[in-house]
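Workshop exercise sheet. Pairs work together: one partner reads the sequence aloud, the other fills in the structure field after running the prediction. Swap roles for the next sheet.
Pair: D.N. / O.F.
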Amino acid sequence: MSDINEVQDENRLIAERRAKLDILKAAGNAYPNKFRRDTYAQDLFEQYGEKTKEELAELEITVSIAGRVMLNRGAFGVIQDMTGRIQFYVNKAARPFAKALDLGDIIGVKGILHKSGKGDLYVDLGEYQLLTKSLRPLPDKHKGLQDTEMRYRQRYVDLIMNEESRRVFSIRSKMVAGIRNFLVERRFVEVETPMLQVIPGGATARPFITHHNALGRDMFLRIAPELYLKRLVVGGIERVFEINRSYRNEGLSTRHNPEFTMLEFYQAYADYNDLMDLTEELMRKLATDVLGSTTITYQGSEYDLSQPFTRISVVDSILHYNPTLSLADIDNIESATAVAKELHIPLKDGYGLGKIQIEIFEKTVESKLDSPTFITQYPAEVSPLARRNDDNPFVTDRFEFFVGGREVANGFSELNDSEDQAQRFKDQVAEMEAGDDEAMHYDADYITALEYGLPPTAGQGIGIDRLVMFFADCDSIRDVILFPAMRPKV
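Structure field:
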């Protein structure tokens, strides 16, 4: 019954606001667009926040501000713009205007800046104008912030009401800009590669399929830009990056969204060790520039990014986090299969030793990688694009970067042997034909590119969404994506 009453109350308020809008329309232009502000709330606090009441009165500064009415009580109200909030004072002449306002209305105000006896800045309502009538009432402050479904489905309301959400997306914006600046300063060139692809490649994942009517063929949404970026390295763009949207037809979780943002970059004449060094440098630079410190608090734990990150191989990490196991337990298919069975890890027919080791790693190690850690030497079986290690061809010169129990980045020395790459593509096709819907396709044009010659190169992908989760202290990927994918309402 309470829900019904709430809906009825909301409908009544909407009707009252529409009636006010009708009056505005009858009087003239209800949506004017001639008011121009000359400052923002935050700027006023930064410039004049330390001034005394008397000093400010002597200056007689006139400012024009605009934003959404968030509070309107008696003599004072509060206006909110993209930088923060500031009060406005309702003098006698402005009372009829202020009385007609509803919370959520967007107004423009011009007047003299003052400071109250309590030390709060405010703008006297000298000139004022209603710019946009808000037809829907804002949610109750506390209830609105607790309704996660509303926050994700109506992000615009969440951003109006929730300062924490605005903080998260400000951090995200600064991080993306910081990443771009970091790479450009090191002579990397930013590019754009196709999002619609004839062959999905660059990662092992199930793609989204669409249809191009003019070409009369199915196409795939990009699962990664990797193969196109490496084509550009072949072409002579020896340091290249793309901050890209990619798409993977996978499930929804606190760590996964079907469309996500990723940084991929490639550096010629470098190997995976160089990129691990670069990643540490990038993490420290971002933390300092965005948060002001290399110490980050995430989910109640502190992480000191100024310290060297741990580097440990897949096999050594399995043995470290499973002290009852020995190398002999996981260095052949028979014993590794027995270990997986004991751990209740399901295996498919055709899994080689490398794939079984990774299944054990994901089950017993991954969630425990709390401090910043590079896991290295991934088996070639699960690394179809990575260069084999010179001393041990069973593994590749590859790493994944983990922090807070989550994978954030994947990098490796690139495979530039066209014949080896062709055979690995063929192996992937065989796995696809055997029922693996995440296996890669054979990309003949990419093999042609490699035959022209790819210099020794290292490449890396970083999940921007997961990195923002760590920097902004968010436990769900939905909190760092403005419009996350949602299941249909029941």
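Discussion prompt: The mean pLDDT is 94. What would you look at next?
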